[in-house]
Amino acid sequence: MTDEQLATALRGSSAARVPGGQVLALYERLRAAGQLGRHLVVEYRCADTAACVLARVFTTPAGTFIHKPACGAAVAGTVDGASGPRGWPETAYLLPEFPIAVSLGCDHVRARCDADAVRADIALAHRRGSPTGRRISGSRSGVIE
Fold this sequence. Notes:
Elements: H1 3-11, H2 21-32, H3 36-39, E1 40-46, E2 53-60, E3 63-68, E4 71-72, E5 80-81, E6 84-85, E7 87-88, E8 91-94, E9 101-105, E10 110-114, H4 115-128, E11 132-136, E12 142-144
Parallel strand pairs: 1-11, 10-12
Antiparallel strand pairs: 1-2, 2-3, 3-8, 4-7, 5-6, 9-10
Helix pairs in contact: 1-2
């Protein structure tokens, strides 16, 4: 799949009517084509031995986007329980739509990642010419800045 085909597919996607759906559709197209590695610029993982993927940032002709996999009970399809949230569903959004901070987490760590820190990691990856990886450790309420 060429860069032009990716951009065209994203523009023509029926997922455009769903918030974030268009970006998730792009992620799925890259995954299905085996091209995620080609577009990966930053990867955040927990520092536990499980090394859970917390989020990945990709640069494509359609734009730079962040993808967060489903976590916790959301993986099993039960996002909310009687005692409150028990995880979150898969999400993705373009960097210009990136909030001031994004929550990252798994069963081992909870952290808030500042948008400026993500942009700095992207710049570092571009300077190096290879993806940047960051391991998130500490308490379940860490802050990455």
